[in-house]
Amino acid sequence: MIDQPVSAPVRGGVRPPPVRPGAGRFLVLLVVFVCAACGLVYELELVALASYLIGDSVTQASVVLSVMVFAMGVGSLLAKRLRCHAAVGFGLVEAALALIGGCSALVLYAAFAWLGEARYALVAFSLAIGVLIGAEIPLLMSLIQRASRRGGRGEEDAAGTVADLFAADYVGALVGGLAFPFLLLPWLGQLTGALLTGAVNAVAGGALVLWLFRRDISPRARWWLLGANLAVLAVLATATALVADFEAAARRAVYGEPVRVAVHTGVQEVVLTGAEDGPVDLFLDGRLQMSGGDGDRHHRALVHPAMRQGPHARVLVLGGGDGLAAREALRHPAVRSVTVVELDPGMVRLARTDPALSALNGHVYRDPRVKVVYADAFRWLRGATAPRHAYDVVVSDLPDPGVTPSTKLYSQEFYGLTAGVLADGGRLAVHAGPVGARPHAYWTVESTIRAAGFATRPYRAPGRPDRGFVLAVPEARGVPPAPGPGVLGVEEERPGDVPPSTLLRPRYAD
């Protein structure tokens, strides 16, 4: 399918567009703006979903960006073959981009849910989307030059055209980059947001070619392009209508149990599986945080060793929005206050209201001794509202350190800030991830705590799943007390010199 010569001869061999040159130029730049916004949304959506499904957002962002930039160069070279048929070529490129980019999140999630692996799909989509985005600019350059001519006459200012084109492209990228986290993701979610972006992409590209450049395309080519765009829009609309059913089926495939609660809190996805009167499995962003009755064993091992010896009237829990660490702290009669610093109000709301989870945490949020502070733990410790030397026990109940957003909460700087809120004789207890499954990450946590000026005692909870912890006291106070019965020391497993993790040198990637 190629552009056919028009039947009526025109001066210079070029058919003028149906609008004045200035208006035609503006319409092309407007479509450049829209397409750039859509392209960046596809890119950010791949990075966000890959980080959620695979983990380690730094690695996933690097893979997506490097593959896409390489593919954009390939696409620019391939577009040279279409310059003589720029209108039809651009129409086909935008239809393909709308379909592939719009469906990318859906297919990526399906690969993760049913195949258990999304890396290959991630690279394939990054490559395909990059090729199509790279093909846009050369074709748009041809179209904007054509739209600016009047009757085939006139010299174009090439430098000015390039400047206008890239200005529209960069501004569109800015809008798309801001729209994704602040509008599409919180309002529509990743799947529907990507599908809607694809629809906008198809309408903008198809409308430009089928109206502004209709005189440059044969009737047969126009019908083919119209049919292709309508088919793409039909696919995207059908997928949008089925998103809820797809998400429910995919969750069943991922979690293996009937999903009783699944909410996007604005901070993370929280999923509860199991019956209201039975064991509860808690998942945060697809990662298992608590399995069945394991919550008792995990949180007993985390909290009680720090409470056994020394004062423990004032307890600070960093993270722990599920209320289980606070529940264990309140089992000690001498506790007068428990402050929970939790980033996600939705998690606390669920821990208050869900029958199974609130029963599991002993309705801890009804206890007047419990105070909740909604804040990022790092910022709160650094801010003026965190009381200095006020807590006898600090419990760090945060996601595993291998999850990139949590890396700063396992840094030397973070533990240095934590030392500032510990009272004289205070103890720090840290959930440090699995000892056996991820020994490098576990021992990096232990090394990082020591580098922040603590003496440490590493230990684990027996049984499965593997849970590792670190009990620490300020180095000036000597060695931490033995963690007590029910846990196993692992000091003999400590490897050689393990570098600590800092904000500028995170070291948790295995």
Automatic annotation (TrEMBL):
Active site (UniProt) = 397 (proton acceptor)
Please state what the protein is called.
Polyamine aminopropyltransferase
| Binding residues for spermidine | 299, 322
Q: What does this protein do?
A: Catalyzes the irreversible transfer of a propylamine group from the amino donor S-adenosylmethioninamine (decarboxy-AdoMet) to putrescine (1,4-diaminobutane) to yield spermidine.
Q: Which domain of life is it from?
A: Bacteria
Alphabetized InterPro entries for the sequence: MFS_trans_sf (IPR036259), PABS (IPR030374), PABS_CS (IPR030373), SAM-dependent_MTases_sf (IPR029063), Spermi_synthase (IPR001045)
Organism expressing this protein natively: Streptomyces wuyuanensis
The family this protein is said to belong to: Belongs to the spermidine/spermine synthase family.
Kindly give the NCBIfam families that the UniProt entry links to this protein.
Answer: PRK03612.1
Biological process (GO) annotations held by this record are:
spermidine biosynthetic process
The record's EC number reads 2.5.1.16
Q: Can you tell me which residues bind S-methyl-5'-thioadenosine?
A: 268, 342, 376-377, 405
Q: Record keywords: Isomerase included?
A: no
Q: Which Pfam families match?
A: Spermine_synth (PF01564)
Query: What's the encoding gene here?
Result: speE
Which residues are in the PABS domain? Answer: 234-481
Assembly and interaction partners: Homodimer or homotetramer.
Catalytic activity of the protein: S-adenosyl 3-(methylsulfanyl)propylamine + putrescine = S-methyl-5'-thioadenosine + spermidine + H(+)
| Residue numbers spanned by region Disordered | 474-510
State whether keyword Transferase applies: yes
Principal place where this protein is found? membrane
An annotated GO cellular component: plasma membrane
* Pathway stated in the Swiss-Prot or TrEMBL entry: Amine and polyamine biosynthesis; spermidine biosynthesis; spermidine from putrescine: step 1/1
**Entry keywords, A to Z:** Cell membrane, Membrane, Polyamine biosynthesis, Spermidine biosynthesis, Transferase, Transmembrane, Transmembrane helix
